[in-house]
Specification:
The chain has three helices and eight strands, in the order H-E-H-E-E-E-H-E-E-E-E. By secondary structure, it is α+β, with helices and mostly antiparallel strands. Strands 1-8-7-6-5-2-4-3 form an eight-stranded mixed β-sheet. It is globular, with a radius of gyration of 16 Å. About 25% of the residues are buried.
Length: about 170
């Protein structure tokens, strides 16, 4: 984990340039600016933006609005571990809580209508991408959302490139 974190920090420090103002035609609600203050701040911003885009994409595709999203803070010493960051209490108007995988499983047993998400991110390049794996109805896999960004030319801003859904259990009652 330390090696992976060190690689991200080195990448961010080497790739940071002075941000340029957005153009009037840009969509600021779907971008994340990496300011280069620290790896933790950068990851927090990027993950927060990815979660906000996820919430908007799910609402747009399914009309699904979450009362609360529980994100699994999986840490198993692997490259796809959830980073050591804090998330805001609300993202895109939705309450967000980080919980252990065990706590997520307990929540799913007690409240079948709760939404639990495993989030995996690859952030060490100019094309970060995220995989959101959604569970509900007692830990039944509902769908996955793949979100990819690209770095806007000559900026430290990441722009949403694509969001792709793979449906599993959602809507198959």
């Amino acid at each position: 984990m330390q090696n992976f974190s060190a690689q991200i920090l080195v990448f961010l420090l080497l790739s940071c340039t002075t941000p340029t103002p957005s153009t009037p035609n840009s969509k600021p609600e779907k971008t994340a600016e990496i300011k280069g203050a620290s790896a933790e701040l950068d990851l927090q911003q990027l993950y927060t933006q990815a979660i906000a885009d996820y919430i908007r994409e799910v609402d747009s595709a399914y009309g699904l609005r979450f009362d609360t999203l529980y994100f699994g803070k999986h840490v198993f010493g692997q490259a796809d571990d959830f980073p050591d960051i804090e998330l805001p209490g609300h993202i895109a108007g939705t309450p967000v809580l980080l919980v252990s995988p065990e706590e997520g499983e307990r929540i799913q047993r007690e409240r079948e209508a709760a939404f639990y998400v495993n989030l995996f991110g690859r952030t060490g390049s100019d094309r970060p991408d995220f995989l959101f794996v959604l569970f509900s109805k007692g830990f039944v896999h509902q769908f996955d959302v793949f979100i990819q960004y690209s770095r806007a030319p000559n900026t430290n801003e990441f722009v949403l490139d694509s969001a792709r859904f793979e449906r599993f259990g959602y809507g198959k009652d």
